[in-house]
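User: Fold this; tokens only.

Assistant: Input:
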Amino acid sequence: MVDEAHRMSAHYFGAELKLTKRYVLGQLLGRVCRHLLLMTATPHAGKQEDFQLFLALLDGDRFEGKYRDGVHSVDPGDLMRRMVKEDLLTMEGTPLFPERRAYTVPYELSAEETELYEAVSEYVREEMNRADRLKAEGEGRRGNTVGFALTVLQRRLASSPEAIWKSSSAATGSRSADWRCSHRQSGPRRPAPAAAARLPARAARPRRRSHRRHRGLAGDELEELEEDVVDAATAAKTVAELETEIAILNDLAELARRVRFSGHDRKWTELRTILADEALSDEAGNPRKIIVFTEHRDTLNYLVDQTRTMIGRDEAVVAIHGGVRREDRRKIQAIFTQDKETRVLIATDAAGEGLNLQRAHLMVNYDLPWNPNRIEQRFGRIHRIGQTEVCHLWNLLAANTREGEVFKRLLDKIEEQRAAYQGKVFDVLGDAFAEQPCASSSWKPSGTTSPRFERGSTRSSTRRSERT
């Protein structure tokens, strides 16, 4: 039996098949075991070819080769048993899991944020074109690394002014070091050395994994990989190009700094509104515990500072990220679940798996991950056996941005999952772009909601795939 079996993943990159070490372990177990049981709440990440590779661990002959739409048919009905959580009953016939509801909270960027968004997006578009040229010139690996770094930069832009400010500042520093090295060794007119396109020394550690295999990484491993790549990957091939890139990044860093301290952070305003809502208090007037998930550590640090300032007590807020040791995570978990004075846990996906946080039943996705399974894994921290309250999830989303385009792609992925699961999939996203942002004041602790919130699906998903 293998729990969290979705970590046994494999992916196609074009015609090339990449297997994670966990997937190879699954193949080995399948050859030597008479019975193999794979347990996971999230076997399907929205890509049919990856789902077929996962099923090949159970029946390699039947699911051989790369999936092609219209040619292959993936019907795991005889291999997979899947039940929605709300349908599970105790021996007494009562529901095993409570209801859960998801809502989307769209907001408009401020004028300052829109200026920053357009400037960074233009930089990313130009650099993506240069990365494509690198690949066309035969430097595919370097072009892919630059493309991955730019994708991370765009996600940090969507995350917070703090994250894009720190990222652009760090990238400027890394490239400036390469520029100084180039001038010392080669002079201003000669091509920059290979160091200008490589990762920094800290990224060359043996434990660093290729960005092309990032889909199989745990939350803390992915955090480390992204930090390593985004600071240093550059498409510049000459010192002159590097100088131009440094100047652009300096301008972006200064613009991001001004937005960061302008006091016009609309995303934080939405979260603050949720945290301050009187409806998020229990019958005695005590604030209920709430978990806030973000994708990036810089945003996490920013939210910790902002939330502590808002509440007025440092001990009211705790945090978990990839840099927190596992034993310390357990201590923080205990503080959050047992100390009534600790109200808010702010976390990256390092807390997205394996932690029981059901002392809370309220959650906010400050950043929306690009993989719908990760939303499910986050929600699973509070929607667990033993939870007695209706679980609520708010997804914060900037309208009319690339993040909104990703949201649409997520809806498409969930539709693919719905087909593969015969409809048994929970809508973790909630209503898409309602006419008005979902007001947190409409939330009712008794489990009843306003008509706006009633439109959210209450379906859910749970485990398992099995072979006998």
